[in-house]
Amino acid sequence: MKKWSAIFAPALVALATTAPSSAYAAECEEIVLGSAISLTGKYATNGVHAKNGYEFAIKKIKENGGIKVDGKCYNFNVIYYDDESKGDRGATLAERLISQDKVQYMLGPYSSGLTKAIAPVTERYKIPMVEAEGASRSLFNKGYKYLFAVLSTSEQYLASAVTLAEEMAKKDGKEAGDIKVAIAVENDPFSLDIRAGVLEDAERVGMKVVIDEKLPRDLSDMSAILTKVKLLKPDLLVVSGHSKGAATAVRQIKEQNIKVPMIALTHCEAADVTGNFGDAADGILCSTQWAETLSYWDPVFGTAANYEQEFKSAYPEYKEKKVPYQTAQASAAVMVFMSAFERAGTLDKDAVREAISATDMTTFYGRIKFSEAGNNIAKPMVLRQIQNGEYNVVAPSAFASHGLDWPRK
């Protein structure tokens, strides 16, 4: 609370009063942020989730009295361009935002691949970019000084499924070496990092990797891989292919009647696998950066549960499904900028960059603290299992709200 009182004193005052009057709000100037984001193309679903998260945070900050910088009030405004899920277009649009629109601060795009395309541009111009959707660890070994990510890096996403599989094997009186693992991932930086994390953990405990395949480029058919799964009978199947890959996996696992004791996917919520496929999704483990049941809190959004409730009120299209973690972490990125501007006490981008680098804060999304490389080193991943259509946290045990249903029926 002491730390938050220093960082978000204006927000704490705002929470104790009504929303600012229109006269007061009119006195606030603008801080313009830029974002090339996927509104069309294969990443459009998550690109829209991220944009909605940005806009919701901007609205909440404005309602709470804005950003206070050296005695002045500011609100955020974002210039968006559609990168069409293409890296070269994303890089071109980043150049346009900086050179033509004179943007001095950037919010990230969706996906590691798009972030990898844009980061050299923002770095060249020394533009601070806080991103929420690029988790590839390869982004953080380039020596970038202006790139910061609020999310956990991608090798952590499904590695915990290996630990779970080992625990379940021991309950059955087996050794880790008896466990067979199948991996099917998209050929993109994010998914390749997930593959690397699972391979490293499987090797560490002595599990056998019997399938290690790349998903087809368009992510629409993994039936050939699933035929191998039927033949080789792995104990753990790991799939990473963003929203489209998750939907394809759940649909075809059902169609081909695949029986694997443990199945772990990324992007379950973003693909709305429960809404689209019903009980076919039951028992699947879903990696998540954030869950509404976690006990995080901040003075702008309150609890994680309160964030979900208020977001659904603002965006009724999410009412019947879980708020995707992509949306929550996008809001958290805006919170980092708010905190950095207030702590810097200036709009000078180099001073703001230094303030971002020094960030150490807890938000409704989790704790955010950046390493020298720019990745968040303070927040763990969690695994949720779909149980009777509900997403329940089952790992790690410190965050678990439910026991694990195993083996998957």
What key phrases describe this protein's structure?
7-stranded mixed β-sheet; disordered N terminus; Rossmann fold; 409 residues; alpha/beta; 14 helices; 3-stranded mixed β-sheet
> Could you name the ranges where pLDDT drops below 50 across 5 or more consecutive residues?
1-25
Tell me how many strands there are.
17
Q: Write the CATH architecture name of the largest domain.
A: 3-Layer(aba) Sandwich
Strand content: 15-25%
Number of domains: 2
Q: CATH first level of the largest domain: which class?
A: Alpha Beta
**CA-atom Rg in angstroms:** 21 Å
Structural class: alpha/beta
CATH topology of the largest domain: Rossmann fold
CATH homology-level superfamily of the largest domain: Response regulator
Q: How is this structure best described in words?
A:
There is one protein chain. This protein is an alpha/beta fold and 409 residues long. It folds into 2 domains: 2-152 and 291-369, Rossmann fold; 156-288 and 382-395, 3-Layer(aba) Sandwich (Rossmann fold), CATH 3.40.50.2300. The protein has 14 helices and 17 strands. The chain has a 7-stranded mixed β-sheet, sandwiched between helices. α7 (159-171) packs parallel to α8 (189-205). 52% of the residues are buried. Residues 1-25 have low confidence and may be disordered.
